[in-house]
Specification:
Blueprint (H helix, E strand, L loop, with lengths): L7 E6 L6 H14 L4 E5 L5 H8 L6 H25 L3 E5 L2 H10 L4 H7 L8 E6 L2 H11 L9 H20 L4 E5 L5 H17 L9
Parallel strand pairs: 1-3, 1-4, 2-3, 4-5
GO molecular function, one term: dTMP kinase activity
Organism: Amycolatopsis halotolerans
Protein name: Thymidylate kinase
Length: about 210
C-alpha cells in the first residue's frame, strides 16, 4: 500500500456485453486475494435515484435521464465513493462518466450538455474502457438478453463501440487516465489478471506516469 492512506478510484466502462460486470466481480476477488481492501460498486447506484434511473429508462429520456444519472453520480460520490477512498479502499465502479458520454448521446443529448452536467464529477485514478468487436458484444448480449432499450442488436453495438472510442479520447483530453482493454480475445481471467497488476502498481506507486489509452 502506498504511503498516502487514500484509496484508488477505478472505473470500468464499455458497450453492453463487453464484460464490465464480470470484470468488476473478478477484480474484487483478485485484489482481495492480494490483501487489498476493495469496495465494488455500480452506476446507476443502488441508492434511490440510481434505482429510479436503472428501472425507468422507458419513462426518463434525453436530458431528463442525463440529469437523473448525473444527480445519482454526485450523490454516489458524496455518500459512497469518497468515504471509501478516504478509508483507504480501492473503489471499483461498474460504469461511470464515459457511459454517459455514450448512452446519453444514443438518447439524443448533445455532447456539450453531457459534458457540462458531468464536469464536476471526480476524476478516476484509472478509467478503464473495455472494448471488443461489435459482433462479439452483440452475440454476448443476445445470449444474456438485453437489459434495456439501449441495447438491441449489432447495429447499436457498433454505434456504442464507436462512441466509446470517441469518449475515451474526450476524457483523456480532460485528464482522465484512460486505459483501453480488449476483451474480444482475452478471457475474463486474462483481463482480471492484467488489470489487477495495473491497479496494484497504482496502489504501490501512486506517482507512476499516468496511462493514456
Ligand atoms: N473476456 C470475456 N470473454 C468472453 N466472455 C466474456 C468476457 N467477459 C464477459 N464475458 C461474458 O459476456 C457476457 C456479458 O458480460 P457482462 O460482464 O455482463 O457484460 P457487461 O456488464 O459489460 O454488460 C457474460 O455472459 C459474460 O460471462
Ligand atoms: C451509468 C449510466 C446508466 N444509464 C442508464 C441506462 C442504462 O441502461 C441503465 C442501467 O444501467 P446498466 O448498467 O445497463 O444496468 P444493468 O446492466 O445492471 O441492467 O442506466 C445512463 O443512461 N447513463 C449512464 O451514465
Amino acid at each position: 500500500m502506498n504511503d498516502s492512506s487514500r484509496g484508488v478510484f477505478v472505473t470500468l466502462d464499455g458497450p453492453a456485453g463487453v464484460g464490465k460486470t464480470t470484470t468488476t466481480r473478478m477484480l474484487r476477488e483478485y485484489l482481495g486475494k492480494r490483501g487489498y481492501p476493495v469496495h465494488d460498486t455500480t452506476e446507476p447506484s443502488r441508492a434511490l435515484l440510481g434505482e429510479i434511473a436503472r428501472h425507468h429508462t422507458e419513462t426518463y429520456r434525453g436530458r431528463a435521464l442525463a440529469c437523473l444519472v448525473a444527480a445519482d453520480r454526485y450523490q454516489h460520490l458524496e455518500t459512497e465513493v469518497r468515504p471509501h477512498l478516504d478509508a483507504g479502499f480501492i473503489v471499483v465502479c461498474d460504469r461511470y462518466v464515459a457511459s454517459s458520454y455514450v448512452l446519453q448521446r444514443m438518447d439524443g443529448v448533445p455532447l456539450p450538455y453531457v459534458e457540462a452536467v458531468n464536469s464536476a464529477a471526480d476524476r478516476p485514478d484509472l478509467a478503464v474502457i473495455l472494448q471488443a468487436p461489435p459482433a462479439i458484444t452483440a452475440a454476448r448480449v443476445a445470449a444474456r438478453g438485453a437489459h434495456d432499450r439501449f441495447h438491441t442488436g449489432e447495429c447499436s453495438s457498433r454505434q456504442e463501440t464507436d462512441l466509446y472510442e470517441e469518449a475515451a479520447k474526450r476524457l483523456a483530453a480532460r485528464g482522465y487516465p484512460v486505459l483501453a482493454v480488449d476483451t474480444g480475445e482475452a478471457s475474463p481471467v486474462d483481463v482480471a489478471v492484467y488489470l489487477t497488476a495495473r491497479i496494484a502498481e497504482l496502489v504501490e506507486r501512486p506517482d507512476a506516469p499516468a496511462v493514456t489509452a
